[in-house]
Specification:
Shape: rod-shaped
Distance between the termini: 60 Å
Radius of gyration: 38 Å
Number of strands: 3
Helix content: 55-70%
Number of helices: 8
């Protein structure tokens, strides 16, 4: 028996062949495939190849004698060297460092997202507090106005109230609101009147739109930084740099699209 090597493009195929003489002619019989490996092989490729090779020979133990296996393994080792202990440690270190960088980048990404959400939550709390204070002030004014109505209807002489009634524009101006603010308030009031389920649906949609806007701003800012840093870079290098820089934003951009 002997080992045969055949290379197809960048793949090396290894097989076990036995030579026999049949009717005075030499015939070669394929015994078993022993695996394949990319050329040139990496350390990880060689580790996987040799693991599978030993597993394959374990299944061929009833057909291939130990001495033949040793001879074949030696031939294969000359072509595809077994991994040394130093190479294994170097690969482990390389993978560990890559894992460290990946998890650190993910940590920073998630921490940034968490900080953004905390900022949005704090802003929402401030807006809610301001709205609550304004609602309480308006409620007090409404109670005072109702009291004046009741007193006037009861025949009392009530001072003041002889000018023109406030128009919609007057009280908008007095409250320091813009027409856009007013439209927003009217929409929110309309949603609120529909009940808790509508308000919950609004909150979900509002948060989703905020995140989409945040993603757009993040991508725009990152692209602007890259445009400034690589103004003269060849197109292929510039694209590669941008792709690396924006790697963690690809999912968000896809979702937005």
């Amino acid at each position: 028996m002997f080992v045969r090597f055949r290379q197809r493009r960048n793949l090396l195929l290894v097989s076990l062949v036995e030579t026999r003489r049949v009717d005075g002619k030499v015939r070669q019989e394929h015994i078993a495939g022993l695996g394949s490996i990319e050329v040139p092989p990496s350390v990880a490729d060689r580790i996987t190849f040799w693991q599978r090779l030993h597993e394959r020979f374990a299944k061929l133990s009833n057909r291939v004698a130990t001495a033949t296996q040793t001879k074949v393994l030696g031939k294969i080792h000359a072509r595809v060297p077994m991994v040394t202990a130093d190479e294994q440690r170097a690969l482990q270190l390389e993978n560990a460092e890559a894992d460290q960088q990946l998890w650190e980048r993910l940590r920073d990404l998630h921490q940034s997202t968490a900080n953004d959400h905390k900022g949005l939550a704090a802003k929402a709390e401030r807006t809610a507090a301001n709205g609550q204070a304004a609602a309480e002030a308006a409620a007090a004014n409404a109670a005072g106005a109702k009291d004046r109505v009741d007193r006037i209807k009861g025949g009392e002489n009530v001072p003041g109230g002889l000018g023109k009634p406030m128009t919609r524009g007057d009280w908008i101006k007095q409250l320091g609101l813009t027409r856009r603010d007013l439209r927003r308030m009217e929409h929110l009031m309309a949603v609120d009147k529909l009940g808790d389920d509508a308000w919950e649906e609004y909150s979900h949609e509002h948060f989703r739109e905020l995140m989409k806007a945040d993603n757009r701003m993040t991508l725009a800012a990152a692209r602007e930084v890259l445009r400034r840093r690589f103004p003269e870079a060849p197109e292929d290098k510039q694209a590669a740099a941008r792709e690396a820089f924006l790697a963690f934003h690809d999912d968000e951009a896809a979702d937005e699209g």
